Amino acid sequence: MPIAVQAASFAAFSLPSRLHRILDAQGISQPTPIQSQAIPVLLAGQDVIAQARTGSGKTLAFVLPLLHRIDADVRGVQALVLVPTRELAIQVGSVLAPLAGALHLRHTMLYGGRALGPEKRSLMSAQIVIGTPGRTLDHLRQGNLSLNRLSFFVLDEADEMLDRGFAPDVERILSHAPRKRQTALFSATLPNWVADIAARHVHNAVTIEVDADAPAPPEIDHVVYDIETAAKLGALRTLLDRRGAKPVIVFGRTKHGVKKLAQHLEALGYPAAALQGNLSQNARERVMAGFRSGAMPILLATNVAARGLDVPGVGQVINYELPESAEWFTHRVGRTGRMGNAGTAITLLTPEDSVKWRQIERALGRKLARQRWAHTIANPVDEGDVSDMSKRGGNRTTKSAPKQPMVNKGPKKK
To answer: Which of these, 82, 281, 236, lies nearest to 164 by C-alpha position?
Structure first.
């Protein structure tokens, strides 16, 4: 199998000078490990199956070679990037837009939750498409999108897409594309079953695994509190009161619970908003715009925000409720500590969480140090049903701060 060549700086890549100028203007000079290994291989025209954790710079690793491959004088869609969620489509688009604009290339995004008409019109001139599988397939079936000229295909977050059952849609989409094309599959994890499926879509691919053994980014400090159910809301308020200037993401398990918790915090005066699956696309975009701008620095979210959402500078992730698996735990905490920045992941464990937490630790291959939440029950607060997440064990909140956290500096191998 071919071996990936590494580069020490973006200057070493054979890219148009206009792209180098934009990278310089954005302060991007040294490639991350996945960029260093993947970009030269893709620029050479080879297929790639690449694994690197979230926050490692995967998007730029395929965007730069993609742009290099497009012929500005040729009409029609020449590159397609498939992503699992509309949020990730928007993120990839934000990375692509200034670079594509410098080369006078036209791109569009296809995702559900909005009218088909404007997307159909944009496809008439688009050379690059970023889309979710379902909406992309809709346009193919309606004749709005042709892949006859496709030369570059990217499947982003491949493990997530295939695990969520998108494989049949991906197969249907690729049946409309030429067999002779360059293909890149990028993924945060690369289990054997993903590699087996990916192998059907690539030719003589270079496999790149940057940090396959790392369960979580080393820049993340883990703080785990054992806490009584009745004290959780008060503990969350204390943590939010002490959050500092950086934005925070609070994860819950259900749409209803996250919505209720956000409403409760808003009523108490916290600049908080909820991101969950029942929101319309316009509402989602408003929430994310407020979070990115700092107008709403506290984001309450279900797992919809755990993958693919790249918001620079998130200072803390708070697991108000445990996720379903260790993999989701890794993706949740990966929203902070991105691109070499420091971050903190705080997890609140109630007695009911004991079994699931043991399963998560076993899958992570390590134990995280735990400490009791030091709290004083005072001033009753009506929590209503702010959470489907926990059994309601009382209506009191806390006033005192937690003890100094015992911090775990990054993951350790078992």
So the answer is: 82
